[in-house]
Amino acid sequence: MVFEYILKENGIDPSEVNINQSIDFGSTAAAFSGGQGDYTIEFEPSATALEQEGVGYVVESLGTASGYVPYTAYCAKESYLEEQPEVIQAFTNALQKGMDYVNSHTPEEIAAVIAPQFPENDEETIATIVKRYYEQDTWKEDLIFEEESFALLQDILVSAGELKERVPYEKLVTIEFAEAAVQ
Fold first, then answer.
1. In Å, how far are 71, 140, 163 from 145, measured between CA atoms?
2. Phi and psi for 154 in degrees, rounded to 5?
3. Overall pTM surpassing 0.90 (yes/no)
């Protein structure tokens, strides 16, 4: 959806581009390296792996081209927010602590810490990926879900035909826990 939105924003009709959506997302890098398609959309570490194998290179970041799309958002029922605010705040504080860490350490330091979570990659590869994220301004300073990003997400969903009616920001988003975590 993000790719098609970017195409439309740049005057390209996605229906006039041959986009193969029949390939399982986990298999797109293998399909590309096997000769299917001229371009592929990859998350890391697949994008870097294609470069390391010499079969492709990163042309553009969809995140950079689209703006801050909230790829990761945490949802809870209103009743849970009301009944367990200390749990939500502790969770949000922990996430903010992680954001603070990635925004105050080098790619190499981050790679050393997160390497056990990515046993299929060496630390140098992980550091390369983290460096790319820094260069693309992937990580925000905080967890506050801005209204502008919410509007962008809805624009993308409307453009893709997945959202029929927009939802007011105030009705669906609370930032009180993220604001408190920044303090």
1. 11, 10, 19
2. -65, -35
3. no
